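Quick question, first post here. What does this chain look like in 3D?
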Amino acid sequence: MHFRGNAALWLQTYEALHTVATWPELFVGVFGKFNRDKYGKIMDILFAHKQIGMVDEYAHKFEELMHRILLYNHSYDETFFVRRFLAGLKPELSRTIKLMNPITVDLAFSMVQTQEALLAEDTTPPTNKYAQRDAMRQKFKHHSQLPVFLGPVPDNKKLEDKPVIPSV
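> Answer (accepted):
Ran it through. Tokens below.
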């Protein structure tokens, strides 16, 4: 036995008050004393766990919590943990991954790593849809300076001299 301090005193008292003939009986006593309310607290932590930084950090902590919960209750299935994992992700990541409907936490983690990398690649700042046009206007203040993609700019006088074709 490696009980020390208050735990050693507790063991002596427990053995004096209870019949401890087997390891399972001792386990029940130790579990009841030193593990009380931890299951509920771990569940609370899992439900409050949200991604703040990178997905790797979030997933590492999530996996630790998942395994700690499974020590107490083996009945939770993979679907439960996948849904909890997705619920804690940043919205811009979770929406895309939910559409793919991953069936395991590992698969969801792999997908969200890819999604995070793709979002990181798109580092161009968002611009309004007229930014390119406005930049061209600033560069070429007069229409005669605009680059000619379809040939020379027609002279306005020549356009006025052309006869109008009546519609039939």
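The chain has nine helices and no strands.
The CA atoms of residues 99 and 141 lie 48 Å apart.
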